[in-house]
Amino acid sequence: xxxxxxxxxxxxxxxxxxxxxxxxxxxxxxxxxxxxxxxxxxxxxxxxxxxxxxxxxxxxxxxxxxxxxxxxxxxxxxxxxxxxxxxxxxxxxxxxxxxxxxxxxxxxxxxxxxxxxxxxxxxxxxxxxxxxxxxxxxxxxxxxxxxxxxxxxxxxxxxxxxxxxxxxxxxxxxxxxxxxxxxxxxxxxxxxxxxxxxxxxxxxxxxxxxxxxxxxxxxxxxxxxxxxxxxxxxxxxxxxxxxxxxxxxxxxxxxxxxxxxxxxxxxxxxxxxxxxxxxxxxxxxxxxxxxxxxxxxxxxxxxxxxxxxxxxxxxxxxxxxxxxxxxxxxxxxxxxxxxxxxxxxxxxxxxxxxxxxxxxxxxxxxxxxxxxxxxxxxxxxxxxxxxxxxxxxxxxxxxxxxxxxxxxxxxxxxxxxxxxxxxxxxxxxxxxxxxxxxxxxxxxxxxxxxxxxxxxxx
Length: 458
Fold this sequence. Notes:
This protein folds into 3 domains: 66-248, no CATH class; 285-362, no CATH class; 366-440, no CATH class. With 458 residues, the chain is α+β, with helices and mostly antiparallel strands. It has 8 helices and 18 strands.
């Protein structure tokens, strides 16, 4: 398949994404032959070979291979009408190993849905591939570097496995490739938006806890329903690559019911204004007014070690506010507002500043974009400085225009007044830029002085 960049706002599905090179060891051989120029006869040959290894997940997933899972782990809702599925961070993962050597489109991964939680145990590879009597394990040959590895395995009753495992013919229908636009999404390291998805073949049971295991079916084609079978074995041992648990209830609340339960007369997102008086003192009017504007009172530990109380209002308070055009802050402390009427601090802007800072630091693309923006700004400042110096030095010699904004050129079409923009860019860059003076830049050569009575040399 061809993975192309999709138009914005679209999603594309594909049956599979077969890897170009299968996992395993290969020998790359190259040879150079030296021949005589005139006759063309060969008199020397220089062959060489190199062993390479193409790796792929097999008994353990890599750190970035599992992107997400649904239903979310440890969540509770009406999931009995949702097929559990996992999203993998690389589009070729479900086809990087083989279940059926004759058909590369059959994925080697499957999701098994259990009503009861099977016991997952960390085992050596030898225990999984060569299990005890009565247990059927994967029929695969480990590579030399895999023999000492360990993995997580589950033992499933053979009758239960035959009832819940997908058939071999169903496996190609339970995995696909999904290509989405990630321009305005949190991508967690996946830049191109190409994912692979593995879907379970069973719905979770209502009103119960469900456990889902992402298992490897490599070497297990005979054990699949409709296959040759596993003989007298009563247990199937599978490699579990990931697992999670969630609770499915018969009647989930859902978004529509949550909104409906709020009631027609629900108040705004604010603390109740009906407060009980403390002692003989009634609630202060300013406290009632602050609560009505969405504020709350929080304990505040100062840097000095003192403890006080401060006002705070989150960004989601459903209360109309007046927009304040504030200057940029260099720290959260600069965004702290002091209310002289109440003698308390308002930490709303300070908290927003700190939240924005943490979100920026958590975004892997933000530092790169910030450095690129700063570099572009400095480059523009240097260009403006160069043209201002050019104007100051050579305007009388090169017949330059009297208005320096005419030097903007096609690469600076938005500059209406070059001098004003230069000042703004200099202030933005945090530096100082001085325009050269032609007279000041002219080198001063000291004239030789003659002593009295001395004669000049011929």
